[in-house]
Amino acid sequence: MNTNKSIPSKEGNKHYKEFLSHYLIPSPKTIMDYFAHNPGKLILIGARPAMGKTSLMLSLTKSRSDCPVLIISLELSETQLENRYLALSKDNRFLFPVDASLEWLGSGGPDLFICSADHSLLQIRSLLLEQRNDVPVKVIFIDYIQLIKETNPDYLTQLKSFAEEFQLSIVAFSQLEKEIDENPIFQPTLDGLLRYNPNTSLVDEIYYMVRPDYYGITKDEFGYNLQNHAVFYGLKGSFHDKMGLLKFNRKRGRFKRTNLSEIISQSNN
After folding, report:
1. Are β-strands 243-249 and 23-24 bridged in parallel, bridged antiparallel, or unpaired?
2. What is the pLDDT of residues 236-267, one digit of tens each?
3. Domains of the chain, start order
4. Kindly report the CA angle at 198 between 196 and 202, in degrees rounded to 5?
């Protein structure tokens, strides 16, 4: 995943080089492409309440390109998710519940499926198994996995098996409590995160997501202005020890690619 492309004529600027030595700046589309082209992976994104997990999930979904997506919401209803997605994209061509005509997916029709907590993992597997040749779902989002854990203690084993069997990526969001770490903003710890998901051997990639300005912090440890941004810490997997940024539009509840020039300009003022 080339996360730092499209910065022509700026690469020679020392400020840009310095910034890119600390952060990756992907777009939602490059993230979705990465998920779609790495089948069999179980990916965990942990965050506290109010960090924008559902907004991130819908922003990534909106940016999909030739990437059929299944959203399993264990917190919001199908109607609530549809309304939030429509408010984000104003595009209703790809929305219908998972128990509708799944065969449409294989014929160029709608490529976004939504189901609520009424459907268990076994039911979802059964649906995909029946439509295996017609429904090439590439990414499954689960929001959020603690609600699966309450009814299925072996949920990580089943999710990993699910990803491998159907050759798709499963991206599961994890709801973290506020006391998980004494300093959550710039010093997340894998041990702290895994108090809620201890069986890491089955998880391929783990990320910790936080919006510093939610806690009144607008600058990071390097002096960069990260207001209206989410920071993603790679704690395990391909981007271990890396930090990534996405800009957050509070009014629209939408994540998009960081404007590097804007950050550099604001940080130098």
Report:
1. parallel
2. 888 888 899 999 988 888 899 998 888 887 77
3. 26-210 (3.40.50.300)
4. 120
